[in-house]
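@channel anyone free to eyeball this complex?
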Amino acid sequence: MAITVLTTVHSLQAQQFRPAPGVHYPNHGLMAPGQAGSQMLLRGGPIPGYFQPAQIRCPQGGKVAIASAGKFAAGAPSVLNVGLLIGTPYRFKITEIPGLPGVEIFPTVELLDRLYPPAGLATRFPIPIHLTAQELRMAAEGLFVTRVIYLEDPTNPVVIQDQENRQRFFDVRFNEDPLRVADQLGRPMAILRIGSKQPRMDRQTGRFMFSSPPFRTIAPQQPSNISRERLEQAIISTPSIGRLR
Amino acid sequence: MKKFCLTLVAMSGILASMTACTSPGLQTTGQPHPAHLSISDGQPGSVQPVNHVGTAAQQGPAALPPQAYTGPNAGLPYPAQWTPPGIHGPFPEDEYVYQGGDGYQLTNVAQDFSIDNLDEEDTIAHFHTLDGDIEIERTNRVPIYAPRFASTRRIDGLSQYRHQDHVHAVDSPLALDTSKNDTSQQQVKQQVSTQRNIGTRSTALYKENQKLRDMAHQVASAEDSQMVKPQVGDLLNTKVNIQNSQEAQLSIRQQTALAQTDEETVKEYAYDLLPYRMLGNNKVQTNHHYEIAEGNSRLDIRKVASRQDALPGELLEFTITFKNTGDRAIGNVTIVDHLSRRLAYVDDSQNCTVESDFFVNPTGKDSAILRWEIVDPLEVGESAAITFKCRVR
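replying in thread with the prediction:
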């Protein structure tokens, strides 16, 4: 009986993650947290040891906290900016979710790649990882949400105006690999997994928090007192123009 | 896996122990037992390593001095602005939005002002010369750091994950039922080698005789030198009868023969006499001399952006400056800018310092082509500027 179930499920997985012709995809989005990222580390390059800034955003009113030193730190309201290592899974805690009183969700985030911004702009361009109220509600009801955040190919963008507080996403079919679809549309950067798993704290191994890997806190930016309209008016000032011969 | 985690954690300890940080405003923290990093004073940007706890950490790379670490990048954190060796300029390209230049295909302009191969992001200018020709000038390429993110989502139900849990929980039924105990052979054959050797002894007396005869023959051969033959004819037939009294005479003649047959080579050598003191290296430098013939029509056009980086939703202002740098007036000057799809033109935001007609031509790819047709001819040395704003998508 067990062999029958094993064979059936393996054949089902083989159908789901069948690679495209001519392309080999060793990873898929439904692997355990940390597996795909560790494969990225093995590829080498300037990835190990780099703390890639990321922005974890939950619905307005909620609080988001990251596992630190075996426990969850104080939650930040709505937005948490942290520098995360690539390839290491991190556990977060979402509390005070609007519409879900008393519910706590513990999503995981795993970075797959990094950005290469100009000097001094690393914290201005974090990888946005947004958790919507709908996804948190689905997770609380027992569903499992996998999101693959990717860097869009600038030569083939979706022509819509992006909003600051809402990350664009679209659902893939049940038999499609979200990581592979993201790879076809751009460069996969992070995997967000939201489920209803509750912590069973194991002090010996710390498996639930993935041993609380190190991270870096990013000083919050001071909100500007100048309105966006005034800032946009200020842009009108003519920049320095190179002297013509 | 455990070793890998330890390596990562320990490597991060090295990173935090150094003063160089990847980004301003970053502080490192983590759990105390393997990471050894925490915030002590709470000041922004301050990172202070904590004393190591445990033997595993003391033996790891974190306990080594930085110069002893041989991991990636010699233990230093990779900077945020990193480019592969040998590659200059914006890297990687998928994090930038480009505007300007004439990429992919070269743009052509027909006599009826129809434009072919104007790709996205291209910015060109075309004009008529006094000879009736149409000339095309391209602007520089402006890179703007503007990465944009999106995501794919998959929602799975609980039933499917029950199947997966079953798979992970099933024990392997392939247990070992029987075991065979193979008894190896305990009898060992030992080969005994022969312990007796047969020695051969040569006759000592015969050896001495043979030695003497060989020595005599050897002396005779040495005296019968080929160099002696041309000079001493009477010794040719008496080579075996040479007495000791003849050796002195023979040696003299042998020396004579050697002296006569020695080849005398040229003994003079030419030496390169180098100066022992360099007073100067007076080489002819490369000079480029350009002669521009009169009667040329040229237009210098450049493009700049108000910012080099932008988030989605922010405004950018582009400025296109152009100047007649030829020695003849040019006419029908037209500036054409094919915007990237990441840029949306802000209506009524354009401004031109000379009288011009402005058009916005939508394309089939939801991008826009901006066109300025300068009304008056551009005289020699005359310049103008165009500004317009775009919102980053």
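from a first look: The mean pLDDT of chain A is 82.
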